[in-house]
Design goal:
The protein is of the alpha+beta class. It is about 40% helix and about 20% strand. Strand 12 (about 220) and strand 13 (about 225) form a beta hairpin. Helix 17 packs across helix 21 (about 510-530). Bound molecules: 5-deoxy-5-fluoro-D-xylulose (5FX).
Length: about 525
């Protein structure tokens, strides 16, 4: 009925669980539910949703667990009387880079789903590899080196695919499986990403990979948004057919299979919009829609991502992905391993375990820390790559020193983290004019003030930390509107009714100038630390 409420469902298949968010056309969240793999599906025996092999490097998840999770979530939605009959479109999010290996039976099994049985029972034997490699896997160093060599070096791979070869990127994972498990490779009809596997369950067939998540494979030509023949050729034979097509992120993947209407009361014409990766969906959920919009997620690890008009891939840091809400634009992302745990370590060492005392130290110390700069590498760092852990402190003359005063340490951690984001962000093309802070540490106002002054842009906060699931629901609405309009509708159009984010900090010109003057010194010292 024309005046009936229309709802949009976002699913987020993350490392640790499966979550759903349903929104209405005015972008209000009307229903949410999450399941946790370890807690709710203990028979799969995962820890944090994954299983780590004895080598410590190989990390996988049982692909069938993701199917069982969808069964369970649907049962819970039914028990909650979630308004499934009003859902017009579904989109979703998947942990990036993970691959799902489907055998020759898979396509017909998906097509012929029977409503009297759960998905798990019917789809238990559709995998050519039962345990899917996931993004935490770092066992493909040899394949990365070989593929970079074949393609002309790290910068050439970055120029072609948006990132140099990274262990977790799917192309390198595929090369390893082709080398180590040739029979399983040969038995594979389709290699899906997590983000194309879940919609495959929904449409009862192979769903396409979207260009944004496809950018996390080291296989796609980042500008043309097509598989790069050279990148495929140096990975494994016959890959184009096994990977299937790439579509723009707002495009339709298919129509919801009748299994869902027969069992759970969805209507027959629900549109399934291409799923994408969790980081691209977070960009949508945080409503980044213009070049200069940057989000900083402050959690166990810190992530910086933003909207870019142009791709300027760098071999030394970060990733360029196709943009999930604007097909001609890009997004860039930097990942940091030393986030909240490192901040907490210095809080415990220098502020007696108290955030209040930490904030007082910041109040009491000068902006720019009198020239003192520190590098606090508690975990091997990704940006820039620093494998050796330790703490490096330098005085105003650039001389290494053994210790700082507690207040200097507190300030040096915060200033160093944001100077690094400014430096490496500049290298991937960020020119922030608006920063959206999210994640657990975004409630810390002394941290936010340092972020604001170092980066020189106003800071806003997003109340909802789980932006991937919400972003998927926004993208379901976006894709549905594009279908209705018979062509692309700007994402900004969809977001018109969204309540504005709350601004929490405005940059101070004097403080920003101090950080600008510090940046080149920071870069020099960082080079020394990277060199060891
Ligand atoms: C991004 O490149 C990553 O590897 C992670 O953020 C995963 O997407 C987490 F799911």
């Amino acid at each position: 009925m024309a005046d009936e409420k229309k709802l949009f469902l976002g699913l987020d298949s993350s490392t640790q669980g499966l979550k759903c968010t349903i929104i209405d056309e005015a972008l209000n969240t009307v229903y949410e539910r999450a399941i946790n793999f370890d807690r709710d599906l203990p028979r799969f025996g995962t820890k944090g949703g994954v299983q780590v092999a004895a080598d410590g490097l190989t990390v996988t998840s049982p692909a069938l667990m993701w199917v069982a999770a969808l069964d369970l979530l649907l049962e819970q939605m039914r028990a909650d009387k979630a308004p499934l009959a009003l859902v017009r479109a579904i989109s979703g999010s998947g942990q990036q880079h993970g691959s799902v290996w489907l055998n020759a039976k898979a396509e017909s099994k998906l097509r012929n789903l029977q409503a009297d049985q759960p998905l798990e029972t019917q789809l238990a034997d559709i995998f050519s590899i039962a345990d899917s490699p996931v993004w935490m896997d770092s066992s493909t160093g040899a394949q990365c080196a070989a593929r970079e060599k074949a393609l002309g070096g790290a910068q050439a791979v970055a120029d072609l695919t948006g990132s140099r070869a990274y262990e977790r990127f799917t192309g390198n994972q595929i090369a390893k499986i082709h080398e180590h498990q040739p029979a399983a490779f040969a038995a594979t009809s389709r290699i899906a990403l997590v983000s194309s596997f879940i919609p495959s369950l929904l449409i009862g067939g192979f769903a396409p990979i979207d260009a944004s998540d496809g950018s996390g494979m080291n296989l796609m030509d980042i500008r043309r948004k097509t598989w790069s023949p050279a990148a495929l050729d140096c990975t494994a034979p016959g890959l184009a057919a096994k990977l299937g097509p790439i579509v723009a992120s707002h495009e339709k993947a298919g129509t919801l299979h009748k299994w869902f209407s027969q069992r759970y009361g969805f209507t027959a014409d629900v549109q399934v919009i291409a799923f994408s990766g969790d980081n691209p969906n977070s960009l949508a959920g945080l409503r980044l829609q213009d070049p200069g919009d940057v989000a900083i997620s402050l959690g166990t690890s810190d992530t910086v991502f933003g909207f870019l008009a142009e791709a300027r891939p760098s071999a030394s840091e970060g990733h360029i992905f196709a943009n999930p809400v604007a097909p001609d634009a890009y997004m860039a992302m930097l990942c940091y391993k030393n986030g909240s745990l490192t901040r907490e370590f210095i809080r415990d060492q220098s502020a007696g375990g108290s955030w209040k005392a930490y904030a007082q130290h910041l109040e009491a110390s000068p902006v720019g820390n009198g020239g003192c700069i520190g590098f606090y590498i508690r975990d091997p760092e990704i940006t820039p790559p620093i494998l050796k852990t330790g703490i490096w402190r330098f005085d105003a003359a650039g001389k290494p020193v053994d210790r700082f005063e507690p207040a200097q340490d507190c300030r040096a951690v915060y200033e160093g983290q944001f100077l690094s984001m400014r430096l490496h962000g500049r290298n991937v093309g960020f020119k922030p004019h608006r920063i959206l802070a999210t994640g657990g540490a975004s409630v810390d106002m002394s941290l936010i003030r340092v972020m604001c002054n170092v980066l020189g842009a106003p800071v806003f906060v997003a109340e909802k930390a789980d932006s991937a699931s919400l972003g998927a629901a926004y993208r379901a609405l976006h894709g549905w509107r594009c279908l209705k309009a018979g062509g692309f509708v700007s994402f900004g159009e969809i977001l018109k009714t969204a309540a504005p984010f709350k601004q929490v900090a405005t940059p101070d010109a004097g403080a920003h100038a101090i950080y600008t003057a510090m940046l080149e010194r920071y870069a020099e010292l960082e080079k020394r630390v990277v060199k060891g």
